[in-house]
């Protein structure tokens, strides 16, 4: 089994938004790549409702016309067993594992994926305590991302062993699969290059340097190292440099800080700011550039898709030797990796403490860490100067990068790796032992218990299989349907809708069958198929609540 239902919510895949982030771009790109390159005859959407399913189906029709799309509603997770796997566009498979445990833990696999690991490390800990099974996985987009996940899970597992005496703390599989791109979308002809450069006033002999991504000094890449290095490269080479920053600011204050910073730290470089949220900018601006740069120094980054996009566009890259960046660009081959440095481990516990205590927001937390991350400005200046002065070197590195992007990072090469992981999880599910099997008399999630179990001490008594029920004496068979409809139409009873009680057809069937001397609850349940009996059992008390039925031998209320 190599297919999976895709958990679809627009927040995981939609790029037409003001708060655009890398995970949105990555999610949309993955979905398009999946449709185009999975080779599947049909797709499965795990969504909250028809509207989300329609959006999913529209995307599928656009990129893989003629394929079937099936809806697997989130309200019916047991149906996922037909497919065998659920893919979640984030690492939080723990909540899905708890839902699965209430049904059949061997029914299907769960597969998540890392994006930013710095925002909620405590949430990663849930992977150690949730009922994650040997047939589950969280794909890491880089070895650096995997190392950051293990840096949380390993000491937390140690704590659980010390605190609780746990002999084993099982974890999900953590396969490493990079993000991908549609490399064909980054090929541009000379006419497009000329038009884009002319529109920005960039001369043929000028050097255009492109940064693409969020323009955030505290949450993406602090720009001062880039500004200083470009200023030095311009001074050293005598070339006219243009720095195209195609991105978006979180607010006007950040925008002002960037524009003033460019004037202050690289006054001889022409700083151009473009709104990278616009599709026409995000897709065409690559054509204008001679080289790409991204001196990321922020822990929120785990992979970094823009260097891969730059390679696909045939641009040499000047990037930091940081996180997943070092796994994409080969130093001296596809571009240059600029050294970075952090203080030693153990010197920043107060950062974590202030964030955990709510004294710092997430932005301040990662911004503080960025302030103690250094990028080698001299090495960056050397790289910029070498590429600016040597068009042949730019061309050679750009061609090497494009070949690498096509071979290793095109979705055509990446999607089969996802299918392989899902296939391997299915094989494991066939033979591996189940971890922490659920006892039949216990809830699947003890921290989200059945309220009728949690509060079982509250009532005088419980409905039992031997309880004999009668239809209310004043309720004629001919009026049952109208009485039920009026009851459920009353705004006071709005919470009875949406699966709280059995459908009206089952309730009518029961009420019509409760002629004197009535029936025991065990006999009433046999009136409906087995899969609907649990719902009917609680619905009988609902009917008692409004006086439609009563226990034999007890006084009955009045129906008006």
Automatic annotation (TrEMBL):
Keyword flag tRNA-binding: no
Keyword presence, Iron: no
EC number: 2.4.-.-
GO MF annotation terms: glycosyltransferase activity
Family annotation (Gene3D superfamilies): Glycogen Phosphorylase B (3.40.50.2000)
Alphabetically ordered keywords of this record: Glycosyltransferase, Transferase
Start and end residues of each Glycosyl transferase family domain: 194-339
Leading EC class: transferase
Record-linked PANTHER family: GLYCOSYL TRANSFERASE GROUP 1, GLYCOSYLTRANSFERASE
Protein's recorded name: Glycosyltransferase family 4 protein
Annotated source species: Azospirillum isscasi
Lineage: Bacteria, Pseudomonadati, Pseudomonadota, Alphaproteobacteria, Rhodospirillales
């Amino acid at each position: 089994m190599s297919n999976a239902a895709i958990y679809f919510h627009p927040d995981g895949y939609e790029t037409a938004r003001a708060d655009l982030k890398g995970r949105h771009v990555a999610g949309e790109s993955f979905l398009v790549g999946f449709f185009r390159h999975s080779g599947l005859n049909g797709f499965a959407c795990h969504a909250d409702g028809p509207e989300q399913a329609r959006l999913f189906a529209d995307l599928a029709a656009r990129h893989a016309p003629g394929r079937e799309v099936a809806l697997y509603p989130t309200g019916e997770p047991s149906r996922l067993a037909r497919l065998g796997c659920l893919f979640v566009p984030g690492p939080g498979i723990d909540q899905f594992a708890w839902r699965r445990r209430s049904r059949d833990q061997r029914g299907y696999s769960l597969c998540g994926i890392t994006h930013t690991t710095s925002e909620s490390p405590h949430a990663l800990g849930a992977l150690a305590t949730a009922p994650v099974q040997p047939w589950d996985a969280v794909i890491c987009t880089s070895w650096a991302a995997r190392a950051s996940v293990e840096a949380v899970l390993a000491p937390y597992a140690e704590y659980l062993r010390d605190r609780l005496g746990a002999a084993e703390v099982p974890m999900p599989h953590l396969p490493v699969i990079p993000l991908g791109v549609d490399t064909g979308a980054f090929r541009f002809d000379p006419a497009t290059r000329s038009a884009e450069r002319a529109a920005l006033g960039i001369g043929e002999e000028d050097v255009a340097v492109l940064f693409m991504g969020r323009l955030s000094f505290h949450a993406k890449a602090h720009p001062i190292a880039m500004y200083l290095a470009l200023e030095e490269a311009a001074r050293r080479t005598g070339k006219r440099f243009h720095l195209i920053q195609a991105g978006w600011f979180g607010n006007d204050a950040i925008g002002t800080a960037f524009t003033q910073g460019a004037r202050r730290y690289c006054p001889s470089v022409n700083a151009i700011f473009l709104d990278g949220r616009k599709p026409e900018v995000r897709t065409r601006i690559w054509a204008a550039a001679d080289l790409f740069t991204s001196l990321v120094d922020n822990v929120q980054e785990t992979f970094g898709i823009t260097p891969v996009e730059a390679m696909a566009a045939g641009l040499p890259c000047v990037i930091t030797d940081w996180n997943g960046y070092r796994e994409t660009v080969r130093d001296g081959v596809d571009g240059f990796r600029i050294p970075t440095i952090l203080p030693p481990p153990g010197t920043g516990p107060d950062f974590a403490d202030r964030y955990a205590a709510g004294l710092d927001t997430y932005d301040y937390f990662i911004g503080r860490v960025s302030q103690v991350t250094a990028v080698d400005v001299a090495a960056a200046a050397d790289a910029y100067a070498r590429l600016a002065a040597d068009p042949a070197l730019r061309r050679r590195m750009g061609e090497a990068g494009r070949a690498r992007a096509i071979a290793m990072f095109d979705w055509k090469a990446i999607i089969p790796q996802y299918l392989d992981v899902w296939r391997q999880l299915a094989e494991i599910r066939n033979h591996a032992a189940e971890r922490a099997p659920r006892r039949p008399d216990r809830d699947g999630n003890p921290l989200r218990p059945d309220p009728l179990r949690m509060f079982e001490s509250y009532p005088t008594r419980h409905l039992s299989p031997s309880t004999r029920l009668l239809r209310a004496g004043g309720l004629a068979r001919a009026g049952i349907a109208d009485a039920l409809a009026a009851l459920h139409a009353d705004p006071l009873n709005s919470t009875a809708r949406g699966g709280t009680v059995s459908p009206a057809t089952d309730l009518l069937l029961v009420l019509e069958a409760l002629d004197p001397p009535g029936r025991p609850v065990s006999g009433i349940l046999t009136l409906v198929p087995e899969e609907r009996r649990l719902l009917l059992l609680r619905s009988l008390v609902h009917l008692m609540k409004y006086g439609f039925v009563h226990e034999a031998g007890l006084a009955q209320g009045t129906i008006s």
